[in-house]
Amino acid sequence: MASSTTLSLLLLLLLLPFSHSTTFTIINHCPYTIWPAAIPGGGRQLNPNQTWTLPINSTTTGSRIWARTNCTFNNSGHLHCQTGDCDNLLQCQTSGKPPNTLVEFALNQFNHQDLFDVSLIDGFNVPVEFTPVKGCASSGARCAADVTAQCPAVLRVPGGCNHPCTVFNNEEYCCFSGNCGTNDYFRFFKSLCPGAYISPSLETGQASTLTCPSGTQYRVVFCPN
C-alpha cells in the first residue's frame, strides 16, 4: 500500500496541470498614463513605457482586458475615469463603461486551444495590439488606428468613440438576434480596424476570433507602434 506521503505527491501531480497560469504582459506605449484593467486581474496605473505582468489561470473563460483613460482619485479614494470606468474602483470587478477597446479571450477551450480577439463591440478609446509571444503561428490581432479622431459625430464622446449599439440600443446596431445586416457605422469601424470584431453580421466563420495552443503566453500593447 502506498504511504500517505506518496499519495499526497500523486495528488499534487494530478492537480498541477490545472493550476498553470498564462502570462499576459501589458505594456503602455502611449504618450500618456492609462489605467489598464482586467477581468479577472483587477487593475493598476501604467505610466508611459511601464509594464504590468499579469498571470491568469489557464482555464479562464469570458475574460477581457481594456484601458481606462483620464482617471483621477476623489477625496474618498475612489477612481473615476473618463473612459472604461468600472464602478469607480482601481481594482475592477466588473466590465468597464463604454467606450473602451477590448481584448477578449477564453483559455484552454475545445481541442486545447485559446480563443482571442480585439473587439470594438464596446466602442474604442485606445489603440491596442494583442499578440502571442511564442508557440503560436498566429500573428495576433490589432486595432492601431486613431478611431476617435475620425469618429462620426453621433458616436463621438469625450475620449472615445461609441459602438452604435451603445447609442441606439436596437436590433439594427446591437444584433440581438445575431442575424442583423450591416450598416455604415459597422463599415466605418471595419475599414479602420479590419481585424477587429465589430458585429456578428460582419463575421464569416468567426474571422476575427483567433486561436493559439493552450499554454501560449501573450502581450497586450496599448498604442502600438
From TrEMBL:
Disulfide bonding pattern of the chain: C30-C223, C71-C81, C86-C92, C143-C193, C151-C161, C165-C174, C175-C180
Annotated signal sequence range: 1-21
Record key words, sorted: Disulfide bond, Signal
InterPro entries: Osmotin/thaumatin-like_sf, Thaumatin
Keyword Disulfide bond recorded: yes
Pfam families the record matches: Thaumatin
Entry similarity comment: Belongs to the thaumatin family.
Stated name of the protein: Thaumatin-like protein
